[in-house]
Amino acid sequence: VEEVANRLRWQGVRVLWGRCYEFERVIPYQPIGEALRSVLPTLTSSELAEFPPWILGQVARLVPEVLQRRPGLGTTPSIRSEEERARLFEGVGHFLAELSCHGALLMVLEDLHWASESTLQLVHYLARHLTGHQILMVGTFRSEAVGMEHPLLGLGRRLTKEGLAQSLRLSRLSFEAVEALVLEMSGAGEAILPLARRLAEETEGNPFFLMEIVKALFEAGTVCVEGDSWQGDFARASEAELPLPVAMSEAIQARVRRLNEDSQEALRVAAVVGREFDFDLLKTVWDRDEEDVLETLDDLLRHRVIEEGSGAVGRDYAFTHHKIQEVVYAGMPRRHRQHLHARAGLAMESVYDTEVEELASELAFHFQEGRLHDHTLREKAISYAVQAGDRAHTLYAHEEAIDHYQQALALLREQGDYERAARTLMKLGLTHHTAFDFGAARQAYEEGFALWQRAGATRPGDPPPPAPHALRVQWDRPTSLDPAMVLDVDSIAPVDQLFSGLLALNAEGDIVPEVARRWELSEGGRTYIFHLRDGVEWSDGMPVTAGDLEYAWKRVLDPTTRSPSASMLYDIKGARAFHQGEVSDPDSVGVRALDGLTLVVELEEPTGHFPYLVATFATFPVPRHVVEVHGEAWTDQGNIVTNGPFILEKWSRGERMVLSRNPAYHGLSTGNVDQLVLELVPGWPAGLEMYQTSDLDVLDVTFFGPGVIDEVLNRYHGEYVSVPRLYTTAAAFDVSQPPFHDPLVRRAFTLATDRETLAHVVRRGLGFPATGGFVPPGMAGHSPG
Which of 2, 417, 436, 690 is the most buried (most CB within 10 A)? Predict the structure, then answer.
């Protein structure tokens, strides 16, 4: 393959090269990213500028270096949706297709037997969508490493059936071919034939075995080069015991044994660090001074065990062949490996510091192995495994995310941390859910619910000391406190504090149980059965029932309610028809209470983002016994009954809203806020003045003018906190006044608006441009456009 690639390079073909590695198999799309990275230096600035930003934005997910060449792209938000995996695939496909317009491409992907399922899915997509373009894709794998159930075999069968691929089985070299190869390499004429025949017998035609044994012959001094040919007693060498055994691992071990002690130890350290390694990391793990490390690396380079800067990740050194790393690693005592893994993980945290999030997968592996040597490292192994899972999830690499979450789960169960295990199972269930694997999602959810109960039994009950005063926040005036009637953030936020739904989003953006203690999926993801917690009460002491939820959801959909959020429930069976008046029977809507604690929801079709919807205000329960008595006035002060973490104490409309902690709240209250005061002061000048006089504790600067934002951030830089939230804003036209009464003018302004500049420059990066839809980043269904 290398020979073919070299010949094509001379003919002007661009070559993209990627490789799969055993230790990096859980890194999503690693070989594709490596191949794309290999071509980046060959692209001129003008060539790169010809690619549409959306394409480069997707490529940057796999090759962050693109952002250095095109800094105007900005950072790509983390997204969790199956649609975005398709968007990533589409972006990579368009990049290669457009690149091929400038000349033919050869993409080589080596060692696909170690490829992750996500990588193989992307390979399949590219093979199907790049037909007709000047692109040749070549993949290599070892047949002995691929079992009957390996996904690579299924991919090969599909591609062959679709007429997109041809398999070339590379058999071992024949005895005659080995003789011819040795004869050609040596330049020694027929004198080399006895040794060539012996090599053919010992290697049985395996090219790697052959080359390793030849290298060992040179290192042992049996053969040397003088002029343009090999020199030595070839006949004697052919009859004597060869310096290395036949097996490949033994051949490598023999090469390593000829190194001095320092070089061998450095090689063992490097084998634990990874296929590629940086000088600073090796020096830190090995704990030797710089001069010693440099001398040792020079020795390893001379012996061609490692090479400089040739790897995919772009680190300082790499093993010349991954099998060398594997054999050295396998030959180390287990305790020694564990010790070095622990040191490697700690060293990576120190050396890479700000980059540890991107290295979470490697760190999780090191601390997972190192914890067996040092049990205090278990927490790091858990933390990085969860981070790696979250990172894989944002890249739509569900299989890798699942692997990482399961790794974290095993460790959490090991230490009896039931609450965090339950939260991780929620992540795992949501990953299965968004991948439409509802059976696996149900299993993960059920395990999580069981652990929630165990966590509740062991959770300490002492609350934190109360805050010295109320938490004071500037807020715009809410339009309503009725969950069915709100759609603006100024109303939704208080409603979120007053009411509690079946599910909730935690601080990490994951779905967790709230009023529901557990839920089940059936009918291929079309039916949900929610089981409510026993003992959840309204603030008047009445129980919260499944009937309250059925009533609330159907009230939202009732056309006479005129709820602005009714369309959010259209995924429910019969919801659209009932809301639009096509049918008048509320029983036609797929929501029903089986009993006081069981709610059944039927969907029109499986919906990956449905759990997110159930965590929104549109699905909050309302107290039927109060609404039916007071009608529209049920949310007035003195009438309102809620079930959330806070209750309404006072509402002076247009001035102030006071919320107090709900002592009957069923959830876990981890904070110390007993009272929340919303100062309903319009406009940022009044709010800023109150903050400056210490009459406010929290001031939201999201909608301040750019100059004011700069001034506030400079003055209060030590008090500024930025947190992510699911949030969509819009700039609206006043259509009652010219020129915006004209639809053509409105469309022209919309098309002329530079959303990137508006978001990143004018708005100072306080939001992402909504170029692809209404759903915000971080929520299933988001599309960046």
Answer: 417
